[in-house]
User: Which sequence fits this backbone?
């Protein structure tokens, strides 16, 4: 015989309680809440600020400073679709290589200019046409401006050259934070840390062991990505290899310290994951890995420039594309050292064994 039929009110129905159980499981999962609600909003806000804080189709154009520079820049600024800045020759070349401007306008005479740009970049071709149109409108269309194209195809001016140093810094951040943080939290979750307390070991030795272990992986981590970019795409490394190694070590240790700080308290993998995502997401969007951080409005720039990933991206990009030495990267190196000392110091004070 089958089970006896039992009449229940809808409030007692098993389906209702099972459904409510699924909701409670979801609400109690920090990582699920973050990726479902917080991540899309933060991503939309960040990209919205990057690409909608200015009028649509704004092209960044540089003008070579000189006797005719101010006049040419003034004519170009009449076009709202152009963001115009003056540069000397070396700064203009660097801005063109690193993607801060799409075209560099070089005034030659009162009625002739040279346009330096990379024709493989669509935004550069558009900026060149807009600049030429603005100069002709400034002359009343009565006299044509003679524009000569000087195509820039050297290594270091392409998008892949701009992108690879950012990917290198982002990869060091990901492996440093996730690799270090998850290892610590996993040991705490398994109560292994509680057993380590009984050993003749101090807290600083335990935390420092994670930082030193990162150094062994840096050789492969950096060498594979930089070597691949150089061999396959011809991405330049204009700075010294020794300086690149030191920057990589500093970035790896800095992000390892950040991972220790984020893992100092959480007891579960889910809790640690939520904290790490919350800390890393602003840097993924704001720090200029995939597009220039100059796209964001001025009021955000102090915050963006203080981020550890921004300092790393700027340092790697200047070193690889412009050949900047460690002395020239003083501000970035100091900021990275400050993050390293601060993160490790706070992790040492806040660390919980169980």
Assistant:
């Amino acid at each position: 015989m089958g089970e006896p039929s039992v009449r229940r009110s809808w409030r007692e129905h098993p389906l209702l309680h099972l459904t409510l159980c699924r909701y409670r499981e979801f609400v109690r999962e920090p990582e699920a809440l973050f990726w479902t609600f917080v991540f899309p909003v933060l991503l939309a806000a960040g990209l919205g600020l990057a690409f909608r804080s200015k009028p649509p189709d704004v092209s960044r154009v540089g003008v070579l400073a000189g006797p005719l520079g101010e006049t040419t820049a003034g004519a170009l600024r009449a076009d709202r679709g152009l963001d115009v800045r003056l540069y000397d020759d070396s700064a203009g070349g660097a801005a063109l290589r690193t993607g801060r401007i799409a075209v560099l306008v070089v005034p030659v005479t009162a009625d002739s200019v040279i346009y330096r740009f990379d024709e493989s970049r669509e935004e550069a071709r558009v900026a060149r046409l807009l600049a030429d149109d603005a100069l002709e409108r400034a002359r009343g269309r009565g006299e044509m401006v003679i524009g000569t194209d000087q195509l820039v195809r050297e290594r270091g001016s392409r998008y892949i050259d701009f992108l690879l140093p950012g990917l290198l810094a982002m990869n060091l951040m990901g492996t440093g934070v996730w690799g270090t943080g998850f290892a610590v939290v996993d040991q705490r979750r398994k109560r292994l840390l509680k057993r380590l307390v009984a050993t003749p070991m101090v807290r600083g030795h335990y935390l420092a062991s994670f930082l030193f272990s990162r150094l062994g992986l840096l050789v492969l981590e950096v060498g594979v990505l930089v070597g691949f970019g150089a061999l396959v795409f011809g991405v330049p490394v204009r700075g010294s290899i020794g300086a690149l190694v030191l920057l990589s070590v500093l970035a790896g240790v800095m992000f390892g310290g950040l991972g220790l700080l984020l893992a100092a308290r959480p007891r579960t993998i889910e809790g640690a994951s939520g904290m790490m995502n919350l800390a890393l997401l602003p840097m993924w969007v704001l720090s200029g890995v995939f597009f220039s951080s100059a796209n964001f409005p001025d009021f955000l720039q102090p915050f963006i420039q203080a981020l550890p990933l921004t300092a790393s991206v700027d340092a790697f990009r200047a070193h690889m594309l412009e050949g900047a030495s460690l002395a020239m990267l003083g501000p970035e190196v100091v900021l990275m050292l400050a993050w390293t000392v601060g993160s490790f110091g706070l992790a040492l004070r806040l660390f919980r064994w169980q």
User: Anything to note?
Assistant: The first strand starts at residue 59 and ends at 64.
